[in-house]
Structures are given as C-alpha cells and as structure tokens.
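Two proteins follow. First one:
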Amino acid sequence: MAAPQIVWFRNDLRLADQAAVRAAAAAGRVVAVFVLDDETPGTWRVGAAQRWWLHYSLAALAKDLDAMGGALVLRRGGPARELAAVAKAIGATTVHALHHYEPWAGAQEAAVAAVLDLQLHDGAYLKVPGTTTSGSGTQYRIFTPFWNALQQSMPPGTPEPAPMIRFADAPDGDALDDWKLLPTDPDWSNGFDVWTPGEAGAHAALATFADVAAEYDDGRNFPAKPLTSRMSPHLHHGEIGPAQVWHAVAGRGAGPESYRREIGWRDFGINIVRQFPDLGDAPNRPAFDSFPFRDDPEGLRAWQRGQTGYPIVDAGMRQLWTIGWMHNRVRMIVASFLTKHLLIDWRSGERWFWDCLVDADYGNNSLGWQWIMGSGVDSSPFNRIFTPVGQSAQFDGAGAYIREWVPELAKLPADAIHAPWEATPMVLKAAGVALGTTYPHPIVGHAEARARALGAYASIRA
C-alpha cells in the first residue's frame, strides 16, 4: 500500500480547483494539515482581523473534510518541524502544497524540502509568477504592459472540481479554539458578521457579485453602492481560486472585463514581490529613503480612529475598523491623507491595514501603499494629492456612505456633509452637529497640508 500523502494547507483553504489536493488524492490516502506559523524569521505575523477570518475558514474546511470522511490536523509552530512530526506519525514522506511567493513562504518551503519530499503545485494565481515576461525575458515593473502580456495567456484553465479523496488515519492535532484566534477582551468583531468565511461562503459571494458584475466598471468608484465584488478576503485566504472567479464572470459585458483587470493586479503584485521581496518594508525608489516624514502620534491615532475631521476619511477608517474591509476608492483617499496631509510614514498605515483588514495580502497591501506614496516602481506621482472634499463630493455626492459610517453627521444636508466646517451655524445646529464636541474640526487644513507635502517632496528631489 502506498504511503499516505500530506496536503499542507496555507492560504489556499479550498478543496475544488486546488492542485495540491488533487495531486495528493491521486497518489494515495490523504492527511490534511494546517500549520499556524508565527516562528519563521521574517514572517509577517498574521494580523488580528485575518486571524478572525482564519478561525472560521479553518472551521469551514474542517467541516468539509469531515463530510468526506476526513479531518483537518492543526499544528502550531515551524512548518518543517510540525510537518515532519505528522509525517513520522503516519509513515509519510511526501507533502503536497500550493507554491506561495511571499518572502517568508520561500523560507518555509526550503525548510520543509530539507526534511521531506515537498511537491509544490501552482494555482494561487492566474499564471505562475515570474512567467509573464517581455520578449527579451525581462520581468515587468509597470502594470499596463504586464496586463497586456498576461492577457495573451488567458483564459486560465477550466477549474477542476474537488476530487474524490481517500483519507488515512490522522494523528492528533490542536483544537482550533485553543489557538484563540478570535478577539475576546474587547471583542471588536461584532461588525464582521457581514462575512461568511469558507469555500461555500466564497462561492456564495461570487454568485452575488456575478449578478451585478455588468455594473462594475461604472459603479466600482462609488463606495455607497454595493457594486464591488468583496471577493478579496476569499481570494487572499484561497477559499476560491482566481481561475474560478475569472470564468464565473465570463460573458457579462464591460464590467467583468474591468474586474478581471483587478484580478490581474493581484498577479502583478506578487510578481513585484518576487523582484522586491522587502516591498512591505522599503521603498522601491531610493530617493524616498530620505523622505522627511513627521513623527505625529496624535495625528496617526486620529486617522486610525476616524477622527480627522474629514468625513470621507473618517467614514473609511470606521468602516475598516467595523467590518475589516474598506472600499478601494476610499482606501486611496485615506492612504493619501495619511502620507501627504499628515506626512506620516506610509509603513505606519500599511501596518494598520495589515492588522485591521480581513484581506491584508502582502503583495496587494504593500503595492497599494507604495503606489499612493509614489515610492513604488509603478505608482502615482507623489504630487498627486487627493483632495478629500473633492473626492467625497464626486464619489459620495449625496453623502450616503458618510451617513452610514459617521452617523453623527447623518442629518447634515448633502451640500454640507462633505465639509461640515464650512456649514453655517444654523445648518450645524439643525443637524445636531457641534464641531469640536460631537465631531472634530479638521486636524489640518487642506491648503496648508498640500503646501507642506510638496515642500517635503521637493527636499528629496533637490
């Protein structure tokens, strides 16, 4: 009888269209293992919001495996040590896993490969990272030519259903509750009930989005409209694969074409990570090493709490804290505000997002912050400084998004809600708004902040 095969689950918590599962099932009896790694040097410890998601996603995967007659073995520690212990207990020598490309993932894989036969499979991205190159074989650093080249290899292969799996007897593992991934004191996750982690939840979310995907191209910039996919946490945790998403929105017009570009951006992000493994820690453009950031703990705290006095910024930050997610248009606005209005180091915002986002992907998160800062190889110019009031009026004209997330301003009329400090005392009183008491004054003026930011930028260009 063939030796049991280990499937090492990571950020690929699904059974369908999962090449490692399929290969292991074809080779023999299977033992499924997930290792929570907080030990590998250089690993970005999983953030608090991701830990909430991970708890429920693992529970869902365990339930799916149980329904097939198997179990999910949970271990905590270094993957090489824990997988070797499982292998010894069941008489296995081979581990199957999807290949991941974050800098710490390579270290994990090398350590496992040193003690076991590690079989790596592709399937976390539309195309194997590093294989979308120019005619001369050069790696792309600008998205548009990367996207144009990637499309030449599309569509991705037809997604495979979950295979029939024969399970081997599983060794003991940890109890999920003992990992204490969920917040307790205080429990800040009450708003997270808008999410359904797990493979079934991912497919339900995709079906919901597919019904409105035709409107995505026009509607994605308006945060009050439910026209974004909200698939990012499901994709990040691998509860659904990018090929599954690609095919699900086929034939639905211009909206899905625009959405597919966003899936391509995810591929682009990991390709940049392969070229710049320290993307989350160091600017791609050396000039930004000497950027004169301000040390402003009070400003950072006001931004984190959604108390900047700019309603669109505060709405986004409160949405982030409440549900662990923020509309992409608003992510750009709040990131620009932190780095340019407040001149606070982009890495402070990046780390806050990493801890608060249920979809905090290393490539996407780091790339997004460097794009806003202007320090990335493909980025917006630093001197493109978002005007919070203008962005708010353009993309949340009636103020519906602000009213949802900044309820103390809900009674303000549309012509006052974007800049309440400009409203007349009569309008403020009628809406029950007392600036400085029920809602803060702006912590910095836009004109002043813009001038200061441009001056700081000029200092590194001299």
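Second one, unrelated to the first:
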Amino acid sequence: MLFALPYLSCACSLGRSNDEVLANLRRGVSPLAPLDSDIPGRTVLFGFVPGDLPCIDDPEYNFRSCQLLLHAVRNGNGAFESLVSRYGADRVAIVLGASNTGIHEAQGYVDQWLDSGVKPEAMRFSMIELGTPAEYLASLLGVRGPAYVVSTACSSGVKAFASARRLIEAGMVDAAIVGGVDGRCRFALNGFHALGALSDGLCRPLAPDRDGINLGEGVALFTMEKISGSGHSGFAPLLAGVGESSDAYHPTSPDPDGRGAEAAMRAALADAGISAAEVSYVNLHGTGTQANDDMEMKAVRRVFGEDFIAYESTKPLTGHCLGAAGAVEAAICWLKLANGDIRGNALSSSFAFGGSNAALVMAGTDFNAD
C-alpha cells in the first residue's frame, strides 16, 4: 500500500507559509534570533516562527503549540477541512509528533502562582498533557477518528508518519492528518543548557569546531491518503518508506558507532523497496553536537558510501524543533521535491534521546487517491 502526501502547511523560522519557507530555504541565510530571557545569564540563538500567532479563546488550548496548529490550518486554504469532508469525520486520524505542549506557558503560570499564592485563572493543567495538541486539532476540524501525540523526543515527528500509516493499513481510518508541532519552551532550553549541548553561536553541523545545537519552534501538517486507481489525481510527494529502531544505548548520548541510526535508515530504504544508490538527497538529523554528528556520519557512510555528498543539515536555518523536528525536516524534503529542487528519492532522519531512531523516504509522484 502506497501513500500520497498531497498537502502540506508548514511554518518555522524560515517563514509563516510554504512559499516563504521555500524562498528562504533557497536563500540559505539563517533567520535565527537572539533570545536572552529564558536562560539566566545567557543569550542563545533561537528559531522563532516570525510574526504574531492567532489567539485561541479557550484557555485550555491557548498556548503556542496549539496557536501554531491553528495558524497552519488557516494557511491550509481548506485542505484539511476538505479531507475530513471527503472521508468522513470518523475515518480520518490525527497523529502529531510533539514534546513541549504548553509547558512554557504553564511554567509562567506556576511562577505567578508561587509569587501571588493564587492560581492564575487562565491556567489549565491539561496544557502540559502530551495529547492536548492532537485533541485541539481534532476539535478544530471536527475529526472523530483516532487523535493522539507521539512523543519520543526528537524522533517524534518522523515516527508520527509510521504510526498514521499503520492506522490506515489496519483499516481503522482511510486518511490522516500527520505531522508535528512544538513551540518555544523555556524548560527545554534550560534542560539542553544543563546538558552543555547549546551552541554559543549559530550551530555548525559537521564542522570540526561545532559546539552544540540551537533550538527552534515549528509546525508541519500533511494530509496522508492511500494511492489507488480511483479518486482525485495530482502530483505530490509520496511517503515511500519509514524505518524505526531503538538501540537504547544511553538516556541522552547516541550510540557512538551509529548502529541504531544505520538500522533506521536501512529499514526505511527496505520499506521503500529502493537501494541507497537511488537516494538523491539526505536531510540529516545534524544537530551540531560532537557526539551526534560523529555517529551520524559513520552511519551515513556505511549506508550510502564514502563518496555520497548530497546531504545537509537544515538546523542552522530552523533550529532544532524537538518533537516537531522530524516533521519540519520532512516538510523541507516535501517542498524540495514538489518544486523540483531535488528529484528522485529523499531520505530524512531523526534521532532521539534514549536511542529512538527513525527515518523516512519521500519521492515525487503522480497519484490517484481514494
């Protein structure tokens, strides 16, 4: 069973829309901005989504991750509503990768509570529940199929594709809205600061003097549909394969030999039914830390060979979007394929704390969808 990804709505530091993201991606100039308020005594670069986000009337959902979802749906020009209308509210799933939910806003409310002794009226404990973004999106679109969040740290956004595909293959739904979202989070920034993983400047993946990561925020929502001999037709990138592995090497450090990363990439290629030689572009996880980049390039060289050069990390342009990173980087592959910047097959990898690894393969294709 093959799956088309006919529609994408993406926003990250590169822009508020697909067109802006693609234009600034082609320019290759980093839009990351200084952030001096989240880590005491330290300024770091962060990938903010530019401009204002819409406010949500319900305080349960009025936090940045849900605001990013609302922005993405409004930018979708009715594509997500159309999917629900065509298949029926009970036959569409929502599967998102996320890790921060509303922790940033909840932390602010807790600070107010501690200072005043009074719980802020707008605070909702559901803000910090991992499933809340999917619950909000389902409510917004009237979806009554399965709606949940995959939260495996930085591999979440890719693993959401595998999870959504399984729902369709099992016959539980006919289509899915899949992707990832994570907003700015002071708690996450301080966590990476405590690990000594943040760069002092702009991250430099693969560079000999690389010194760590930059964080960012973003949202990427795709529609996913089965390819068949009936229904509407068009051109869209295809989800050709997904691979997952779990090496459980260490809570925060990757396996230095990259065996789990290699296994995920090989599984994605096998799932797609292609060889490594048929991949024309690899979007690396490429965080800019010494440990990640060392192990990843060992794995890439074993899979693709010493002479393969069509790979890059886009994290200096977006920051590391954590639970949304895999979806945002899949969106970059989608935009490059859909607009002819690359041809053939693209592979994107995401590797996470705890040895959770995932990779996906996309290809541009004509399709017929149910």
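SUMMARY FIELD: The chain has a mean pLDDT of 94. The domain at 3-364 is CATH 3.40.47.10 (Peroxisomal Thiolase; Chain A, domain 1).
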